[in-house]
Structure prediction request, 439 residues.
Amino acid sequence: MKFIKKGFFYIVIFVSIVGCRVQLEPVEILTFQQKLEKLFPTAEISKIEVKDHFISEYQLILNQPINHKNPSEGTFKHYVYLSHIDESAPTVIVTEGYNATPKTYELSRILKGNQVQVEYRFYGKSRPDSIPWEYLKNDQAVEDYHKIVSKLKRLYSGKWVSTGISKGGETVLIYKSKYPWDVEVAVPYVAPLINTQEDSRTQQHINTAGSQECRNKISNFQKLLLQNREAIINEINTYAIENDMTFTEVPVNEALEYAVLEFPFSFWQWGGKCEEILTENASPKALFEYLNAIVGIGFYNDETYFNLLPSYYQHLTELGYYGFDTTPVKDLLQVVKNPSNKRFAPKNIDLTYNPNYIKQVRDFVENKGKKILYIYGENDTWGACAPNPKPHVDALKMILKAGDHKTRIKDFSETDKKIIYDKLQQWLGYSVTIYPLED
Prediction:
């Protein structure tokens, strides 16, 4: 009797379970692009050409707040280039200092990771028709990066590393100082932290770099250019016609003088060779071509003038910049009597300089900025403004002997590259694979 009752009880349970069977929803399997679209529902997302080790690449046009403190003030179109390989791989965020052109950065090759390349707000394609200058501030840009990284961390579970070059490297340090935990490691290349609107350390570098003989050759070359002014101007005019350049904002005569004053800075910045500096035996055409190779007269044409207005605004209000030494050619100048980079800044805009902004960034990175790998070239003029992490800070500063502003990890000796790779491995842990660069 007990057996019958128990059997009846089991039948009742079975019938109940079958009757209450839950209908399971089918699992939704999203493509990677669909995952991006869910993360950035208002963005325009499109595929672009795939390069190097990545399996897919995308252009994202985000609707980024103009003012993160008050998003109701509107948005601007912010361009981001995402290169994808694996959701569990390391991810490198590239903080561009200017406009962004899709390319694979050195650190992304070393880590074989994903890459997120972010154009700086109000530069390149991310520039609105009318720039709201009061929001072209580093803290606003940092909020751009923090917002992007915070969202993508829902997708990318691996280690995060930030990198950038020159002004982009400076942005790496600013970002690190404001959000130190957004990334595990920061790798700024040739990044200055400038003291004032006209940092005297750059001129001190120019006055001491190389040999006295080399510095004399630089001064003599500057003089030769202005002593051959009319012939050089003819060369510039010919070059402008051939390259469809106009010099309305900065007339050719003035552009020549600024290029002459710029020459010593650019010579050391870009790795000029003393034995190649031309002398009085050179023709005006050769003199111009050498000046153009080192400085680039196109730097002063109308298109570049327009494109770099945001840069000069930032340098003169927060980042700081450098000055010009007229001493070698003072008696030969006709137009530029009191040279200043303010000449290239937007007009009728407040250019009040904030002396504390970069000071605070430097204080952080030098005293608390752990897991930062600094890459510099010994002769680079901007290296004079490099931060110097204190001995107690777990950071690594590598300076390439005779290197310049183009210095990259690939340029170091095998011994020094091993030091760099070992430090990256230590900081990122052995769950991350380091892929040494191929020669």
